[in-house]
Specification:
homotrimer; alpha+beta; atp-gated p2x4 ion channel fold; 8 helices; disordered C terminus
Chain lengths: ~350, ~350, ~350
């Protein structure tokens, strides 16, 4: 046992497994075939699949363009009739991947810069209204005066300030019938592979009349807003009151080796603003203003608080990953011909 | 053969490979050096490269800011001269990563809410114009009357409704000469590594005059819109008529171990709305309105249908991946000193 | 040594490791337990964790909605008092993931289309002002006339053209006290696992009063803009003069097997427009216009050049990756009972 000659020396010993060589042609041929298969797999993986993997992970190119159609006539008891076209109810109007559709609103017309009572916050004396203080959740800057008639502080603001009760009914309930045309182009640049979710065999007339349905029209790119919401398990009219957020997921699982026409989009729909206790976070609203000048050149504005549904379109490319195949290769246990291979030693 | 003493007992046997130990210093030193290399590689991979991998995959931070320059004077036969600055032709104007440049438009001025004939859809009698029906592809809500002089339904709409013939010539053909300054900042947060596509050695004057060219000015961040389109293989004036979509890909392949100055962006350009049969999906347009009030406080608006080119800037970080290196390690076959290691057994 | 019988024949030999079997129950049980652990790990990884990995890599769904609060009163020496609400200083106003807050501005009111002197570029004679030429960095189209009094070319433009000196003080310095409420919803669709950064146990009152602080209020989703900037190491008032870009990173490292309440967001903050030599690329500004019509129906506009801070909210999902675990498995060296396992051979 020369290895006992010193720990340091033994460190320099070269340890290798001891092998058994079986001289049998059938087994040998099988063994070499197996090796060739493994080799082929590795080359295939490293040079072909891995390249595909990088493609997908770092350079999938996608472009989404949306266009809404539909008109709604609203009849506000105070402001009369108003006609909403896509140029009004889609924000922003420029066909983006994430867009917002107005379903309800509070309009405060003819606001002018001046002094008026706040609607939020109570005061009993001028001491409650420190001059120059910014009311974070309010509409203006306090002037230091408490107005008795309203019981609120006077503010320097766009007057009259917005009074926004909790909305009960969606004014644009007709938004349920609007449609959105989603154009999605994808490209795998290293393969110079293009694809669009608009069927290339589709006739112009098909696209003018079809509406997406997972069963009957799975490749029609035109979606009914009411359906989009109902497919997430929510009710459109209910969501329309205070707003919400819906995700439209487009998945492209394309095997680039296979036929071009097999690469088709899969749509799925989900509500994005779900919470277990949604009392606090529910709803989606924001404000914007339209500015005007009167004949004297004085500014005034109409303030809109709009409630509505935000649609996020998310596009995913193919996601198969080859790492698990390495594992399968590692799990090979070569359990043939067990007995011949083992020396049995009585350990203790 | 004690292993035959029972299947259950044999399950409790501990099986290990049988090793050969070679007492030879040269080989031993080589072997230990090899082990150290493997160990160093593993430590390097697990603690350094893997961290880098996570960085890249989940936490590359990037920020893109765009600014367009150029002015165009349009001479519309109906509406006279109009001057377009970046504040008008870039939508949205706030320097986003995805922006739209107007190249053509149809203006419908002085629309007021009222009743007028539709331009789409034919009718022969009032029965064709069901009251209250929403015309999805139309401009308003039917009143139930068919107007004989036009042969179309009367609608409640912003009147007169837009009449939009297929555009033939781009009104803003001068947009070809606009330039876009693209500022792209990237950051690998775990390494606290910053980088911008604006050359740090560049003098202020260089940036005032240069224009990107892959050969002569590969690091100039100012792009000529005409060039951007032509590098995708398309013609700007042709695309300008009905609009289109162009992708600008910025790739950062930075080896963070190497010199800071070697980490530079690579630009590539691609048309994103290509289809084999592009008759249906071609073009990019949307509508927006400017709202006004007359001296009496009545609302009116100017509706714009704008055609143009959308530019999507896509930023990719470095994508090398370490998994294949494990594979190489696994492929090591230790084929040295073959004869000594093997026992040859006549298998049957 | 039958292997010498021919290279070709030897290729068909089947080579396997030679094993030692130790008949010892304690070791055997340990060994089988170890094997079960490895097997369980592999099954767990392939069927459970890998699924989780794909989830994270290709289908994490996220939705961000922002809402700013705060009012600022600006006192411009020329244009008098102006009140800025969120509907004015947030661009775009619709609660997007990337938003811009105005901190400074230059207003050019009452511009009308016409002819006036340029402010940029010098001329000494009409020859310096070639008619019809587009001044790329200018405001209009040259008419061919050099105006002596100003020493600049006459242009066809929105007049008077903007005169924009380098800003010195931020007009909206009060923007430091604005707050932003960030709602972030995430979803792992294959697990149907939802989560929001808004604490579900939080009372409505908590959200009305809290402000995020990494120590005292790590799960409050309301951020003070001044803090956001100071946490990146920058000074708000300094950045407010010419603008800048700030990244807000939200990281979700959720172990989906563990308790739902352990899956919480981690926030981090970074300045995105940092450069070593920032003389050229610093600042963030753009222009937009508000359009008006006078009683005669003639158009005029107010041009705003706004400086401000862009906030990019970036959401990352969990990033643990199982590949390194394979490595650990491979590193197992079975170094027990060394002596019994080795045959010592004197190699030369």
């Amino acid at each position: 046992m020369a290895a006992r000659g010193g720990f340091f020396l033994s460190l320099l010993n070269y340890k290798t497994e001891k092998y058994v060589i079986a001289e049998n042609r059938k087994i040998g041929i099988l063994f070499r075939l197996y090796q060739l298969a493994v080799l082929g797999y590795i080359i295939g993986w490293v040079f072909v699949a891995k390249k595909g993997y990088q493609e997908k992970e770092e350079a999938i190119q996608t472009s989404v363009f949306t266009k809404l159609k539909g008109v709604a006539l609203t009849n506000d008891s105070n402001k009369g009739l108003h006609l909403w076209g896509a140029e009004d109810y889609v924000i922003p109007p420029n066909g983006e991947q994430v867009f917002f559709v107005v379903t309800n609103y509070i309009e405060t017309p003819n606001q002018r810069l001046g002094f008026c009572p706040e609607v939020n916050g109570r005061c009993t004396s001028d001491d409650d209204c420190e001059e120059g203080e910014t009311v974070i959740a309010g509409n203006g800057i306090k002037t230091g005066v408490c107005i008795n008639s309203t019981g609120t502080c006077e503010v320097h603001a766009w007057c009259p300030v917005e009074y926004s009760p909790r909305p009960q009914e969606p004014l644009l309930s007709a938004a349920e019938n609007f449609t959105v045309y989603i154009k999605n182009f994808i490209r795998f640049p290293n393969f110079n592979f293009f694809r669009s979710n608009v069927l290339e065999t589709a006739e112009a007339n098909y696209l003018k009349n079809c509406t997406y349905d997972s069963e009957t029209h799975p490749y029609c790119p035109i979606f009914h807003l009411g359906n989009l919401v109902s497919w997430t398990g929510s009710d459109f009219q209910e969501m329309a009151v205070k707003g919400g957020s819906v995700g439209i997921l487009i998945e492209w699982k394309c095997d680039l080796d296979k036929d071009y026409s097999l690469c088709n989009p899969q749509y799925s729909f989900t509500r994005l603003d779900i919470n277990i206790n949604n009392s606090v976070t529910s709803g989606y609203n924001f404000r914007y203003a339209k500015h005007f000048k009167d004949p004297k050149g004085e500014s005034f504005r109409t303030l809109y608080k709009v409630y509505g549904i935000r649609f996020d379109i998310m596009v995913n490319g193919q996601g198969a990953f080859a790492c698990d195949m390495i594992l399968l290769y590692m799990m090979n246990t070569s359990s043939f011909y067990r007995e011949r291979k083992f020396e049995i030693i009585n350990f203790k």
